Amino acid sequence: AVVAAVAAQWQAPGYCHGLDCPIFKELYNDPSANITYRQYQGAVWVRTNVTGISYKDALNEGFNKLFDYISGANDQGIKVDMTTPVNTQVLSGAGPFCASTFIVSFYAPYIYQQAGNPPPTPTDPTVYVQFVEETTKAVYGFGGYADKWQPWVDPSVYLYSYLEDQSPPVPLVTEYEWTNQYDSPFKPVHRHNEVWIDIEYS
Q1: What DSSP character marks residue 199?
Q2: Phi-psi category of 190—alpha, beta or left, where left has phi over 0 and alpha has psi -120 to 50?
Q3: Of residues 97 and 23, which shows the higher confidence score?
């Protein structure tokens, strides 16, 4: 009920396009760098893990499994509303030709963020529902298509460098990062993507 109440009061950013999207509180904003720090509420996500060396292939495989889930591949056989963004946690492999793990996630609609009202259970055993604890993230947003890994490289390096260049440097997690796509692939302009890095900030 608390999440539902907060969601009712919360003004989602325009790039959520009226869809349910993760609730956060902005802690820091550097307009000149286009970087913010956000405290994200703990929330329920529907997720699937894909192992591979291609970001695009992993994203497509994960997306299709999650789309099947919201289309009715769940124990209630119901359609679940689409949310945004398509979130992918990237855990890099140990070497250049080692497989990485990509955890592709859909945010559960607000109705399922309430205690006692979990989302339907996936019928695909590789899809699972998980509560992700509250976190603080550094965020850098950018436009364009980012369905392959290359468009994420420069934004990621830029965000990491920004955090490390602060005085003192911002403590951060280097083992993984998060990519977020907010738009349909059929929207050609004014697209919004975000790199997230977990940080310690107070």
Answers
A1: B
A2: left
A3: 23
